[in-house]
Every structure is written in structure tokens, then in C-alpha cells.
Amino acid sequence: MSKTASIVSAPGKALIAGGYLVLDPAYSGLVLATSARFYAIVRPSTSTTALAAEINENALPIIVTSPQFPSDPPRHYLVDLTGIDRPGGASFTFRSSPPAANKFIDNALRTALLLAHLRLGPKRFTSALPQANGIDVIVLADNDFYSQSASLARLGLINLCDLPKFTSPSATIASVNKTGLGSSAALVTGIVAGVSRFFTTAQSAASPATDMDKHGIHAAAQLAHCLAQGKIGSGFDVSSAIFGSHRYQRFDPSVLTSAMDVWTAGKHVGQVLAPLIPGLGVKLMLADVAAGSNTPALVSRVLRWRKEKGDEAERVWREIQDNNDRLVEVLEEMGKLDQDQVEREVKAWWTGEAKNGRVGFLVDRLVEILAQNRVGMRSMGQAADVPIEPVEQTKLLDACIEVSGVLGAGVPGAGGYDAIFILYIDHPTVHANLTRALSGFANVTPLLCEASAEGIKDESETAVELAEFQQYL
């Protein structure tokens, strides 16, 4: 069975520069992918669907399960295959049980089937259909995507690193507290890519790892995510799930208004920076702050302020963008240097042994730019009367900045009360001191994930060897 399974993973994200600006294609942001990942396992089904009585020759059964949420029943789909024998003829409508919609899974499945049918054509798509019970889709997420306080208490543990992989967060899908890593975007991207790969590699002799059409998957995942949200969002979370850490510039939203043009969406993703943070002697730490923020409300208020204030608001955005551009320039220049040298000199900069070299100059610039980023975002929040960096977060971030070896910190994305990010020198002492500083604040939990250059990955050849996946194959 494992030889016929497709396993695809997509990372979480942290937008460390360009919050709000990424809503406008004239501006850009800097998004880091994380080592925490969502996994979609797609395989020929081994189960009988709850909709078996309704199966006919034009129906494809699909069963979607989330083993980390045992109290949530599997979702059973019966997909209508009418019209698959002609280009553009299939709409892949479906019935589901339970009938209540899960918009993210529903739209991801349908869009993935549309993409596979478009790529393969009617004849090859039809021949790739499973012959027996349909398809199983199994969704798993690394522990960092969900608040794990209840799991730690239930298991009598203290540290997140002691939790087994794919721990159940002791909640339902509807009630689980998330950590702001972009779980819905990673989920949608993983399902779109996993289902698409399942069909296309069945008809391709190419290596699965190199045959993944990232731009096609990106367009389909952007569409599915927008349909699920009921609006066209900024798209940076889906983009990082596909392309990893990069400078993001939003696609023109009008591209998604026409189904005929959807497959060209998302190609304007900006320049991919590789390496970005990983490998530069600098690490990313994300911390979950157990307090909620209504991100759509924050965005609505900022956009209303921008519209009302016109030139004044544009000046603020332009200043933030100029600083973001400087951040990209510094990271690009560090990425062009010998990486072993950069890592040595970054650590030497921290110890005071090398302050005057090129790397030391760039680190000084990085510290300055990250501080200016906070000033710019706070200024926008104050002008718009929006808590982008609330007082509580300011106290927390200032405490982090005081730790020797911390280069900068801030609130990712739209800000608010949900989370913080910290960039720090890659050294055990700095990490230990930073963790100790965070422990002095209630309801603040450092996550285990780090920054990663990688986006979507085909894990089909490697995950089958890992014990954590064996029971699902």
C-alpha cells in the first residue's frame, strides 16, 4: 500500500515584515516558512464509505480523516464524475456525510480534482481513477500548529519537545486553539498537492519529487483558500506553503475573478530568497501568546484608516516598505557570502570579537532595521487606532530585546495579541536565556519550529520509512 500512497507536506508561516502592506500588489512583505508542517496522505481507500448505497459508475468515494481529532468523525464524500470524458466537462460536485460543510477541505478536494483533470486530460485522468473503494485522504499536523497546554497536562509533561509527534490537542476541530502558523493555508495546500500528485504520478514516469507543478498547485490552492474564506485575501500564507521563505508580492486579485484565468494566478510571488534566515547563524523563534485577536477586524480598521487618510497613510506605508526593502537587501547580501564565514562572524559579532568586518556591519544593519520595523508598525497602529503592537506585547518584546544575542523581535502578520517572533544568534546560551525570559510571562509558550527555506515537499519516498507514518500507510 505504501508504494501507491502520495505524501505531501506544506509548512506553516510567519510574516515578519509587510503586515497589511501585502494586501496591496504595489507593496511586498517578507514571509518565512517554518519547520512545522501539515501532511496530506492520499492513498487508495481501504474502507467502505458511509455513502456506499449511492455509489454508481459516475461516483468517486473519498474519505477524509484527521486522526489527531478522534472525536470528529471522518468526512465521507461522493464526487460526481459526470463529464470527465471531455475537457472542462467535469464540475466535481459532491455530497458529503456529515452534510455540514468544512469549507477548507471541501474546496481543496474539488479544486485538486479540477487541477488533476486539467493537467492530465480526460483520458489519462479517467485511467488514473482508483478501481475499488475510492480514495483515503489522511490529514496530520505537527504539534506546533495547535495549543498543546491541555495535552501537556493530560500526559503529565512540561515541555513541548516531550510530546509524541502528531499529538491530539484534546479538542475538536471547531474548538481547537491555533498558534497562528497558517494552519488553514497549509491544510488546503497539502490536500491540493497531495490529491493532484496522487493522480498525476499515476500517469507519469517522471520522478514524483521533480514532477510537482508548483505554479499550478499554487494557483489551485489560492483559489480553494479564497473560496473557503469567502474573499480574496493577501495570499502570502498559501504562497509560503508552496514556495517557502521569500519576498512576497500579491497577485492581482482580478485574476481570481474568472475561473478561466485561475490557473495563471499566483505567479507574481516576488523573488524567492534562498537561503533566507536558515544557515546565516541566525534563528527564528515563534511564541504562542494565549490571547485572541480578531484579525479580520484589525485589517478592516487599518484599511478604513488608509482610505480615509489618503496621502498621510500612503506616507506611512511607503516608509514601512522602504524599511522592508532594506531588510531584504541585507538578507540577500548575507546570502551571497560564504555561509561558513557568515555563521562564524555572526557569532563573533555577538561575543564582541568581530564588530568591524562586512558581516558585522550587516548584522548591525539587521538590528537597526528590525527595530525600525517595530517603530513603523506601532506608528501605523497608533494612527489607525488599531492594537497592532498592544502594550502587553510591547512589554514582552522589550524583555526579549534585552536578552544578549537577540537581534530583533516583533508581532507577525497583522499583529495583535496572538504571537510574537524573535530573531536571535544561533547559540545555545542565547536560546536558553531567551526561553528563560519568556517563562516570566503567563500564557506565553515558545514553539519548537524554526525558519525553513523549504516550501511544499513530496515526502512519498521518505515518510514511508518513518514509524510515525506506518499506521497510516
TrEMBL record:
Q: Which domain of life is it from?
A: Eukaryota
Name a biological process GO annotation.
farnesyl diphosphate biosynthetic process, mevalonate pathway
Which Pfam families does the UniProt entry name for this protein? GHMP_kinases_C
What's an example GO cellular component term for this entry?
A: peroxisome
- Specify the pathway: Isoprenoid biosynthesis; isopentenyl diphosphate biosynthesis via mevalonate pathway; isopentenyl diphosphate from (R)-mevalonate: step 2/3
Annotated catalysed reactions: (R)-5-phosphomevalonate + ATP = (R)-5-diphosphomevalonate + ADP
Q: Which UniProt keywords apply?
A: ATP-binding, Kinase, Lipid biosynthesis, Lipid metabolism, Nucleotide-binding, Ribonucleoprotein, Ribosomal protein, Steroid biosynthesis, Steroid metabolism, Transferase
Q: Which GO terms describe its molecular function?
A: ATP binding; phosphomevalonate kinase activity
Protein transport keyword on record: no
InterPro entries associated with the record: Erg8, GHMP_kinase_C_dom, GHMP_kinase_C_sf, Phosphomevalonate_kinase, Ribosomal_Su5_D2-typ_SF, Ribsml_uS5_D2-typ_fold_subgr
Gene3D superfamilies given in the database record: 3.30.230.10, GHMP kinase, C-terminal domain
Q: What is its EC number?
A: 2.7.4.2
Enzyme type, top EC level: transferase
Q: Where is the GHMP kinase C-terminal domain?
A: 377-428
Residues in a coiled coil are none
Family in the record: Belongs to the GHMP kinase family. Mevalonate kinase subfamily.
Protein name per the record? Phosphomevalonate kinase
Native organism is: Catenaria anguillulae PL171
